[in-house]
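S., here's the first fold you wanted:
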Amino acid sequence: MSAGPESVEGDAVDRPRIVAAVDETDGQPRLVVADVTTDDAWLSMPAADAVSLSEWR
């Protein structure tokens, strides 16, 4: 199966698609934020340093 020019939802893949996840590195949870439409467009930080959604609002 070949990849098409559109995502599953039908949005064009040239638009930024920002996602976040908590991943574990060296036994420590880290928040990772990435634009999955662009190579090497991500950042991470210790999860303990991240602001909760309710604090951010």
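And the second, which I think is the more interesting of the pair:
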Amino acid sequence: MEVVHAERRQQGFAPALLDAVRLRGGQWGCRRLYLPSGPNNEAALRTWTALRFSNLAGDYTIGGIAVTRAFMGSGRDGAVFELLLPHRLVEHEGGR
């Protein structure tokens, strides 16, 4: 799964999309967001780190990145990133 199409990368879409997800998640009472990434997807790894996501402990490491076996399906290992959300992150939406 791609969050941002290759032709649209480096234009600020991923941070904008994740800001919207972070806001909605907070409104729904979520406390954490998780993002998987292929362990060799350097652009995604840089993006998640820049957006303050933390790499969770895994089964092994590649180049300092913790990787979980079969996280992304059978035979597809993945790095897992987590962002803790502030409690009760709420934006008022016209009285909703």
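Why I say that: The longest strand covers residues 32-37. The helical segments are 13-27, 42-50.

Talk tomorrow,
H.
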